[in-house]
Amino acid sequence: MTTSLRRLTRCAVLTALALALSVAEGLVPLTILFPLPGLRLGLANLVTVYALCRLSGREALLILVARCLLGNLLGGNLMALAFSLTGGLLALGVMALLLRVSVLSLFGVSIGGAAAHNTGQILAAMAVLGGRAPLVYLPPLLLCSLVTGAVTGGVSMLLVHRVPALGDIKS
Amino acid sequence: MKRAISFLLIAIFLLLAGCGTPSAQEQFFTMDTVMSITVNGKGAAEAAAARQEVEGLNALLSRTDGDSLISRLNAHAGDGTAVEVDSDILELLSFAKSISQLLPGCFDITIAPVMDAWGFTGEERHVPDAADLARAMALVDSGKLLLDEEAGTARLAEAGMSVDLGSVAKGYAAARTEEVLREAGVTSALLDLGRNITAVGPKADGAPWRVGVADPADSSRYLCILSLEDATASTSGGYERWFEENGVRYHHIIDPKTGYPASSGLQSVTVVSQNHLLADALSTALFVAGEEEALDFWRSRDDFELVLCTEDGRVLATEGLEAGLEFRGEEQGYDCQMVRR
Amino acid sequence: MTVRWSAADRRRPTPGDLLVALLVAAAAVALLLGLGQEGGNFLTASVVLDGETIAQYDLAALTGPVTLEVEGAAYPLTIQAEPGRIRIAESSCPGQDCVHTGWASRAGQQIICLPNRLVISLEGRVSNEVDAVTS
User: Fold this and answer.
1) What are the extents of the domains in chain B?
2) Average pLDDT estimate for C51-65
């Protein structure tokens, strides 16, 4: 397989996985436990972490944008797209930076990513609704992101170590 | 590798098995009021089905919809034609008649001609002239609503008579909606049918629903907060639908004895009961009856509880409500008391 | 391809992770305090005409009075919003019940104009005090 074809396949597989994860996560009754708008586990962030570690920032970005566009095409609206894109992009940026900090593990990176994701969502909500009302939800969401970030951090550690880089799989 | 994949798969399946969207809500206008239905732990389909049920009932029970069953019954008043009515609705009519017998002079579903004379059903509310009112009052008598259970028919004995189910339709709708939701497997829902609140099961977290009883003097304040589970809280008061003529305020709950807005010394009555239909009907009847008769009636039965707000500034709650009740009326200067049997 | 970042190599949480967690928690607390000082009574009023949201006001953030003329309604009406409260000031509807309702200022409250199929609902932080109101 040529490198570009391999890259394309790799991105496609990861995008599909991210989509599946975000659909699965849409069914998580987390908001039943804590009635907080925007609260989710952030499983799709796993794919971003994996792509950042094993592939490149560019590919991670590509996968993220494709996931958001497709995900909202499948069952969403423009508003939801704005929320997930802003959150996702901010999380991606923050995690790319945190990965470069040598004293952190994937736990710290994921917690930072989850917090950034929530912040991005609330910023988008404030922009869309044209007021500061959504800001009330940010502090509890940030506290929740400590937990969800730690969970996804643990899983991503497993993932990055146990799943070989897709490029290493013999085609 | 294998372990990581199986871990992921297990995680995904666990999440998929979790449950559907956390809650779905429908808000809509029907039965001359606003309704909203919130269903926990299920998809939007259940809430939509509940809405359909209520809208279907409105098409049967509305007096303003010319094609409805009730309109047909009213149109044939006095002409001897018995109108075919299915057994559920027949039961509803007979329930309404039984309330008229239990609380004579406090409740009558054939009050419609008097409501019309006051203009509460149409565009222009006004005090009727004495002759019009007398003519309308002569047509009020639910004893002349004749039900034939065997034949499955109903008819009004005199021309001009008219049935209006406004005081029972929302309670009936609550009961039917609960049935629809339960059949669909719903265990937690909140129905707000024109501010008659029905709690189906507890909240998603297992705690009872918290329902505020509005202060008649200030809709942003509560007289008290009730804890509700599998019950309806229905309130009647003269403070929401009214008009003023020559400086006098006239509200929409007409006393069948006088033909005038009820003035029993009460500002509002809230009835809490596991029987949704009973809660709806009694809130109107006991508002007309007044404090003493309402409490006497409460002492004679064990299937409902009351919150009364009197015109002289007292809030009375019956003892069955004590668990989970929070009085809030003190801040607005009400004297709050529990009533014992 | 090799892992390029040392963070991705680690198999245990580090003190650095704790620092990130603490920073996030500190941000949450700081925000909470900051909001609390403003009184924090976020209050949003949504005006829904026949199922369609036609206007939304952040009542807590309003600095002066705002009026909205709803000409598209069956019975045209005027909505008036002020810092912290909202009402239907005038309506050409027959019953006038919506005007009689007066000012609404508390999360969870509703102003309803039945003939117009119009609902103004207030949402905010205190709304979790009750789940519904009977009136």
Assistant:
1) 28-60+167-201, 64-156, 208-341
2) 86
**pLDDT at position B1:** 39
In CATH, what class is B208-341? alpha beta
Q: Is residue C69 part of a domain?
A: yes
**Half-sphere exposure of residue A54: CA atoms within 13 angstroms, side-chain side:** 23
Residue A33's pLDDT is 63
Q: ipTM score of the complex?
A: 0.84
Residue ranges making up the domain that contains C32: 13-37
Q: Is B130 on the interface with A (CB under 8 A)?
A: no
- For the sheet with B209-215, list strands across it: B326-327, B218-228, B209-215, C132-134
In a domain, C2, yes or no: no
| Domain that includes residue A131, residue range | 3-168
**How many Cα atoms are found within 13 Å in the side-chain-facing hemisphere of C56?**
14
* CATH number attached to the domain at B64-156: 1.10.3980.10
- The Cα–Cα gap between A83 and A72 comes to 10
pLDDT recorded at residue B141: 96
- Residues of B with Cβ-Cβ distance to C109 under 8 angstroms: 219-220
The mean per-residue pLDDT over the stretch B160-166 comes to 96
> How distant is the Cα of C83 from the closest Cα of chain A, in angstroms?
14
> Which residues of C touch chain A, with CB atoms under 8 Å apart?
1, 3-8, 10-21, 24-25, 27-29, 31-32, 35, 40, 42, 44, 56, 58, 60-61, 124-125
Please check the confidence at residue B151 and state whether its pLDDT lies above 60.
Answer: yes
